[in-house]
Amino acid sequence: MSDSAVRRTGGRQARLGRRARPQEALPVAPESLVTTRANPDGPALVLACGALANEIIALREQLGIADDAMVLHCLPAELHNRPGQIAPRVDAFLTEHRHKYSRVLIGYGDCGTGGALDKVLERHDATRLPHAHCYEFFATTPRFDEITEAEIGSYFVTDFLVRHFDRLVWEGLGLDTRPDLLESYFGNYRDLVYLAQTDTPMLQTKAQEAAERLGLNYVYRKVGFGDLTEAIRGTVDV
Amino acid sequence: MSDGEEIILRDLNDADLVEQMKDDLYDGMAAEVHEGTQILLERGWDANDVLTEALVEGMRIVGIDFRDGILFVPEVLQCAGAMKAGMELVRPILVATDNKSSLGTYVIGTVKGDIHDIGKNLVGMMLEGAGFEVVDLGINNPVDNYLAAIDKHNPTILGMSALLTTTMPYMGVVIEELDKRGILKNLPVMVGGAPLNQEFADAINATSYGRDAAVSAELAKALVGKNR
Question: Which pTM was predicted?
């Protein structure tokens, strides 16, 4: 690089310079295993994707699980777009907190970790939700297979993804600044399939709008909580 | 990103221009990369050198930072768009000059049940930049598609891509079929895709695993004995 040359101040060096940011603090968790009459073996931990928080809280109430029997902690739903970070984040949390809980359910499917999450769970004596991703455990396997066999180009969204479509999908994929990338991301899809956990007209309207923005056909399927119900029930032996 | 400085690319000497093009490619600035490519060609650069030193090298850096979690898919797609803008100028020249440096034909496709092609397309672009003639089978390919393409194009290497945990085992099905037919012993098979790892590639008897687009191109060159 000659001294006289005028260069833009972009590129890799600029990116690396902008990169440093403080790590978020882990939330406070119980310091030791606490036993109660509701759960004499100590509390169970559900360490879940933030995209499942509402559903797990609803199931806890529906199944009558006492607050001190099950502790819910969520990792950021943004990891949905960064699957390579899921296993290390789960590992870090369990390394610090596993000893405080009698059993642990990880509220993730494989979620694109390519088996890396399962290796972490083996080390920490924990289990995870069945299937590759939340779409299948919400829809359950027969219905999921039926949808994908009918249309392989099915792009799935859940209540959470519909609610946070702008942040997680549109902005998460950079479509807010580069709408020309739409074809690269969604050119092979045909349908947006809304796998609804709840019967919420506002979300159905939003899902339909999302389908239009992505240039996809809109398909609505009310599936409820699917296999998530049994997984949560099994965590505390309700 | 540019901070708004006015840069006259033509005022830069060759070395600075190449550095600027790599930065512009990193920032996804397609028009600027296109212009830089045009200038180098006008200055008498060989199209292969423009491709290798500015475009492929720029994309190699992008690949490293994608692997290290510094860049993510949206940014990488923008970088790819910028690289394509440069390749639009370089490709016709390479074709017209009957490019003798071709490393052979590389057949690539996403496996059956999987419609994801962003990674595959990036790999295809890097392979083309590395000197392969790329035959892209597209998405959702059953084993018969791979067999037909092998028959038709007699490739130097076969590549398979998958994004889903549920579809990646199909790569093993294809490799098994190639083995049964006696094709595997003469045809290296590369596999790649976000959920894959070396362990999986070994388990299905793939020749090599391409962790990202840049690494895949380097591995492919190594397989044909042309690594740098």
Answer: 0.83
